[in-house]
Amino acid sequence: MKEVSKVTAGEEHAHIVSALTHQLPDADPQETAEWIESLDGLIEAEGTERAQFIMRSLLQRAGARSVGVPMVTTTDYVNTIPVDQEPEFPGDEEIERRYRAWLRWNAAVMVHRAQRPGIGVGGHISTYAGAATLYEVGFNHFFRGKDHPGGGDQIFFQGHASPGMYARAFLEGRLTEEQMDAFRQEVSKAPNGLSSYPHPRMMPDFWEFPTVSMGLGPMNAIYQAQTNRYLQNRGIKDTSDQHVWAFLGDGEMDEPESRGLLQLAANENLDNLTFVINANLQRLDGPVRGNGKIIQELEAFFRGAGWNVIKVVWGREWDALLEKDTDNSLVDIMNTTVDGDYQTYKGESGGFVREHFFGKTPQTKEMVADLTDEQIWQLKRGGHDYRKVYAAYKAAMEFKGKPTVIIAKTVKGYGLGPHFEARNATHQMKKMTMEDLKAFRDHLRIPITDEQLEADLYNAPYYNPGPDSPEIKYMLERRRNLGGPVPQRRTEHTPVKLPSDKTFEIARRGSGKQQAATTMAFVRLLKDLMRDKEFGKRIVPIVPDEARTFGMDAFFPTSKIYNPKGQNYLSVDRELVLAYKESPQGQILHAGINEAGSVSALTAVGTSYATHGEPLIPIYIFYSMFGFQRTGDGIWAAADMMARGFIIGATAGRTTLTGEGTQHADGHSHILASTNPAVVAYDPAYGYEIGHIVRSGLERMYGGKHEDPNVMYYLTVYNEPILQPAEPEDLDVEGVIKGIYLLKRAENDGPRAQLLGSGVSVPWVLEAQKILAEEWGVSADVWSVTSWNELRRDGLAAEAHEFATGEKRVPFIAKQLEGAEGPVIATTDHMHALADQVRQFIPNEFASLGADGFGFADTRAAARRFFKIDTHSAVVKTLQMLERRGEVPAGTAREAYEKYGIDDPNRGTTGNAGGDA
Fold first, then answer.
1. pLDDT tens for residues 102-142?
2. Where are the alpha helices (DSSP H) in 445-533?
3. Residue 260, pLDDT above cutoff 50
4. Between 20 and 30 A from 804 (CA), which of 398, 615, 771, 833?
5. In this structure, how many other beta carbons lie within 10 angstroms of the beta carbon of residue 897?
6. What is residue 377's three-state secondary structure?
C-alpha cells in the first residue's frame, strides 16, 4: 500500500497542553462564560500583570480550600511575556540587523571555504544561522566581559554555533582573515588555526567552556553558577554581579546530563543562571519530537524542577493575529499542531502554511485573508525577533529566587534558502552551491557582486567594512560598555602561597603501631593541608556521598558542608563530636549520590584560577571505579578547560574492595586515566609517597615554574589497613615523583630478580622477597612503582626524541633499573595492561601479574589467589623465570606451585580483612 503523506491536525496530542478542563463536565456554561468575561474585562482594564496576581491569588485560595486544581505545568503555545509587558528595545535595531547579517554571512562563508578541494574539514552552517538573534541580543545588551566592574559573565556557547563566534571576533578585529581560513586546521595552519568547537585547550585565550560533547554544557553551567555563589558565600570573591548563560539545543536536552541536575539549581535558588534553549525543533537527523511538542515538554519539565520558564514562540508579526483571536481558534491550532508539522511548514511556502495551518478553521482562514503568501511566510518565530528575545533576557535577569530557562523557537538554517532551511539533513550540510550563495547574499543584502562569487565557488569573500564604519563602531561601543569582548579567557590570578614543609610532616611520620589504609593516610594529610592558615581556604573537598567511608566525617563539624541556606533543621547527631553540619560558609562540596555533578563541581572549582582569578584546589574523592569509568567524558571536558586539582580514586583495586562485586572492583581506572593527556596518575603504596606526590602536584599547578601546570593528579588509594612505615632517610624523592624507586634491596646472595609492585601490592612483593630468600635462596630487590603511566609517557618521549633527533635518550625506568640483575616481575591489583605499559622500556626479561576479567565478592586473600596476583603467585612466577634462565633447578617452579596450592583460592593468605578507609 502506498504511504500517504499528510499534515495532521494533531487531535491525538491533547496531552501536550495542560488541558485543565479536559474531560470535566461544565454544569453551568453560562456562569463559566461570565467568569471568563470578567477575566477578559480585568485584562483590558488593568493589564496582564494585575490579571496574573488575581489568578495566582485564586489558585492559592483554591488550594487552601482543598479545591483540586492541578499544577499548571504547561501554558498555551504562545509567548510567556504579554505584549503589554514587553520593555522598550534600547538599541538601534536597524544597525544591529545590518551587522547581524554580516555575521551570518561570514560564519557561513568560513565553513563553506573550509570545504575547498584538498581541505574538506567539515563544519556546521545551520545552527548559528538559526540562533544568530539569540546570541546578538546577548552580545549587544547583556553579556558582560572580563573588564566589567562586576567581573564579567560566564557564557557556555552552543558548540555547533562556534562559526558565529568566530565571525563576530573577525568583525571586532580579534581574528584575521587568515585565521578564518584556518578553521579546523589547527596544526597545518598553526599558529592561526581555529578549533572546530569551543575548545579552551586549543585556543586558551579565546574559549572558556567546551560544550560540544552534548549534555556536559548544561550541568557544567549549573555547577559554575553554584561555584560563583560558593566563592561569594565563603568570602573569597564578590560574584554578585556575574551571570552564567548556557546556550543549548532542544535535541541536546534529551541527554540525561542535560536534565538530571536541574534540581541543584532550583534547590540553591541559582538566579544567577539562565539557560537559553534554541528550540529549532530539530536534532541532528530529524525532528526532536515529530509527534509531540518539545517546547511544551521542556516547559513542563523545567517548571516541575522549580525553574522560572519563559517561552519565546512567536515574533511580533503574530501579535495582531493573536489580538484578533477572540475565540482562541488560532491558539487552539498552535496548541495542537505537532512539531513535525511545524518543521514541514518552514520547508514549504506561505501558500502551504495558509492552506494547512490557517486553513484548519474558517475563523483562522479569515484572519489571514488579507495577507499575501509572502506576508504569511514572513510571520517569524520568536527566536528571530530582537524585541521578543530582549524582553525574555531582561525578564530573566530581573527574576529573583529561581534559575530561568528561556525556550526560544527558531528555524534551523534560517535564511540559508530552501536547500537548508528546516531540512532534516541541514545539520550535515557544510557547503553551498553558487545558487545558494547568491540567494543567501540577496537575503542578507551583502554588498558582494555576482562576479566576485563566480570567480571561485570556494573563495566567496568575507564581508568586513572595517573599524570606521558606523555599524562596527556601534558594535565595539556596545562591547566596551559591557566590559570588553567575549568569549575571552584569562589566566592571571591571585598568587598562591603553597604550604610549608611542616604541613607534610604527618605524611612522613607513618602510622607507628596503628594500621592505616592509604585512604586514611591521604585524609590525614588533607586535614593538615586544610589547617594551613593561608593555603587551607583554597582547598575544596568534593565528595559524592561517601565521606564517612573515607574517614572524612571528622571534617563535618569544623570545615562544614556547603549549603547556601545553612542548616535549618535539628540534626539527629547533634550531640556527637562528628555531627553533620551544613553552612553557607561550608568548605566541603557534598554533591550527594551524584558523580556527574561532582565532576562538574571539580571542573568549575578547578578552573576558578582562570574564570575568576582566584585559585581553588579541588580534591574530588570518589568510590572505587565511579570516576573515570562513570564520568570519563566529564573529566575530558575538565581537561579541555585546563582544570587543575586532585582526583582521588578511593577504595581502589580489583581485589582490595571486598564484598562489593563486579561493578565496584576497580582494576582498570589507571588504564582509563592513561588515555587522558591532562591526567597525571599515581598508585602510591605509602603515606610518605602520597605526601611527596601531592606536594609535587601543588608545585606544578601553582608553583609558577612548570611549563605545563594545567593538569589533574589522579591518585588511587586503598581501604586495606597496613602499618604505614615512616619515610626512609635516604628516600629517592625523584624516583617517587617520576614513577619508580628502589624500596628494599635484597640482603642475601643467590639468583637475582627484581620485584615491582604498586599501591596495595607493594607489601605483597615485600613478603615475596622474604619467602624467595628464606625458602628458595633467591635474591630479589623490591621496587615501588608509584606511576606506571608516567613511566610510559617518559619512555614514549624518549623514543620520540630519538626519532626526531637521532640522539638516544634512556627512559627513566631503564636508568633506575640500570645494573639491576635478573628478570623483572611486576605485580599489581589492576589489569596486566597497567604494568605491561613499561615492558618495552625494560632491558631485562619481564613478566607481569594482573587481575583481568570481572571482579567478584570474596575475601581479599581468596580473590588475589584466584587472579594469581598474590605473594605466592609472585614467588612462583619469579622461580619460573629463573628456571627458564637455568638459574634454579628444573622443576622448582612446579614444586612451588604445588606447595602453595596456587590453583586453590582457599589457600590464599595475602592481605587482611577490614578497613572501610
1. 999 999 999 999 999 999 998 988 899 999 999 999 999 99
2. 450-454, 470-481, 505-509, 518-531
3. yes
4. 833
5. 18
6. helix
